[in-house]
Design a protein that fits this description.
With 331 residues, this protein is an all-beta fold. Helices cover 1% and strands 48% of the residues. The strands form 7 sheets. A 4-stranded antiparallel beta sheet has the order 4-5-6-7, with no helix packed on it. A 4-stranded antiparallel beta sheet has the order 8-9-10-11, with no helix packed on it. Strand 12 and strand 13 form a beta hairpin. About 2% of the residues have low confidence.
Length: 331
């Protein structure tokens, strides 16, 4: 974000305090969350994405209260949630382009509230608006680049996301500065071919993984609704949901940065729209998450000698490899 890679780390000797930090090539990492704020989502007990970026700054989930905070290195501002009907655990935060609103998954902790769903929160005012609620479980909401469509995954209560998860989309209406969803419809997934990691491309196509062909492979749905498999590599492009890491990120010209497991070994690659894969030369043997900006790929993971590292790899289409730079080591 803003040319900087952001990640959450828990340094040794920090008393378990998880911090949001950022770094750019050639700089030292800097702390983005205030001292005393520990960043962690406890959604569904196993956790979820715990921060997102807005035009006003970063919004994080505070570990103890499970409430959203607008943070800076100097201070933090609570974004509501104090009333019983809004008592919830939240996670998988996602900013809405061109606005101060963000979307999050919520899990109510008050008996009077809807049990689970999607909520919009205004980082400017702290106002909460329910977008979708029900007895199913929800995760991974993502907003299209034009801010007009939302995708997410959902699966039945009592089931597991690696068995039954479906990808859904809905139109997003910001009229009157009060978000609402319209025309929700299923894209893919369900019993026998679970789907996940919906990822918007700049042209309005939706990439995601599904195991319809026997492996969690990337597929793509273009703006006209045509669905095709993007890669037939006999690899897994997703981990089980409890790890909460994303392995897809849009790059330039419709390409995808992706994490994948081949023969039990984790890699990072750049996948072109024609299905051609280029494996990036980077040091991580465990990939905990990736992000991208143009031809830059940010990677958080572990190397054979360090439990936690943040890496930026530059992928050039003219070459078969990429030069990587380790930005930080957390252990």
């Amino acid at each position: 974000m803003n040319g900087r890679l952001h990640w959450v780390e828990t340094p040794a000797g920090a008393g378990g305090e998880a911090r949001l930090v950022s770094c750019a090539p050639g700089e030292s990492p800097r702390r983005e969350s205030a001292v005393g704020v520990s960043v962690r989502s406890r959604l569904y007990d196993y956790g979820a994405g715990s921060w997102c970026w807005t035009p006003l700054g970063a919004v994080v989930v505070e570990s103890r209260t499970q409430l959203p905070l607008l943070v800076s290195p100097e201070q933090s501002v609570s974004l509501g949630g104090a009333t019983p009907e809004l008592a919830a655990r939240i996670g998988d935060l996602e900013g809405i382009a061109g606005s101060t609103w963000l979307i999050a998954v919520f899990e109510a902790t008050a008996p009077s509230a809807s049990p689970r769903g999607l909520v919009a929160i205004d980082a400017a005012t702290g106002v909460w608006v329910s977008l979708l609620a029900g007895d199913a479980l929800f995760a991974e909401p993502v907003v299209s680049h034009d801010g007009m469509t939302v995708a997410w995954i959902t699966w039945p209560l009592g089931s597991m996301p690696w068995d039954d998860a479906e990808v859904w989309v809905a139109s997003l209406d910001l009229a009157g500065n009060r978000p609402a969803l319209a025309r929700p419809r299923r894209v893919d997934g369900g019993p026998g071919s679970s789907a996940g990691q919906p990822t918007w491309l700049p042209d309005g196509s939706l990439a995601y993984v599904t195991e319809a062909a026997g492996y969690w492979q990337p597929w793509i749905r273009d703006p006209g609704g045509v669905v095709r498999r993007l890669s037939d590599c006999r690899c897994e492009f997703q981990r089980p949901r409890w790890t909460t890491c994303r392995w897809l990120a849009p790059m330039t010209e419709g390409a995808l940065a992706c994490g994948f497991i081949d023969g039990g070994v984790e890699h990072v690659g750049a996948l072109d729209v024609d299905g051609a894969m280029r494996v990036l030369d980077q040091p991580c043997v465990r990939v905990d998450g990736i992000a991208s900006a143009g031809d830059l790929v940010g990677i958080v993971g572990a190397t054979p000698t360090a439990q936690g590292v943040a890496v930026v790899a530059h992928h050039g289409r003219a070459s078969a490899g990429a030069e990587s730079v380790v930005l930080a080591r957390t252990s």
